[in-house]
Amino acid sequence: MAAETTSNHKRVRKSPLERKREILDAAVRLISERGYNGISVQDVADAVGVTKQGVLRYIGSKDNMLSMVYLENYNEGGNVSDFKASGLPGSTVDDLRLPAYLRYLVHYNSQRRMLVQLFSVLQVETFNPDHPLHGEFADRQNSIWRYYSGFDWRIPPVFASFDEVRPTVRKALEVMDGIQLRWLREPAIDLNEEWSEFEPLLFPSPLWDGYR
């Protein structure tokens, strides 16, 4: 009986991939609650139940952990390629609609509250030029525009090219960031419903009729 009890309490070994995922999940939660500058590698180790050296074995350094959290978690999904694979209206190659994609992105974000909170905290923290992701966030608007410009969007003929839609894209991203902040606060709002009220203002009729 004693041998059986000991066997039942053996520590479960996790694969490197499982352990890394566990570490990054803990980092996401802690950074979203306290900010990057408010946590240490030891805090992450304590949350996972391993040593600091054990965490560093998987992430290399605290700065590298932050990069992994942002690039491999927040930026991992909800992109245009995911939208094109969704089969939703406005997602086909010959009928790729920007408003439909942004609607999809808002819905995607509504299902990952913790990561949106992480993004919002980092967005403020990175005003500091010494922050590891300062450059990443400072160039965010430009990098998103470059990314969106790589797709053949179906836009109203009044626009000579997609370049003329850039002010609309900028405003849409600014509105999205603002709505997400309000969504994170109490009392909660419905992120998708709130976006649906702003969408006609960003993509008004009759200009965008048939292109949403």
TrEMBL record:
Domain of life: Bacteria
Keyword field contains Isomerase: no
InterPro entries linked to this entry: Homeodomain-like_sf, HTH-type_TetR-like_transc_reg, HTH_TetR
Membrane spanning residue stretches: none
UniProt keyword terms in alphabetical order: DNA-binding, Transcription, Transcription regulation
Residue spans binding DNA: 40-59
Annotated Pfam families: TetR_N
Gene Ontology MF: a single term: DNA-binding transcription factor activity
Keyword DNA-binding: yes
Stated name of the protein: AcrR family transcriptional regulator
Annotated HTH tetR-type domain residues: 17-77
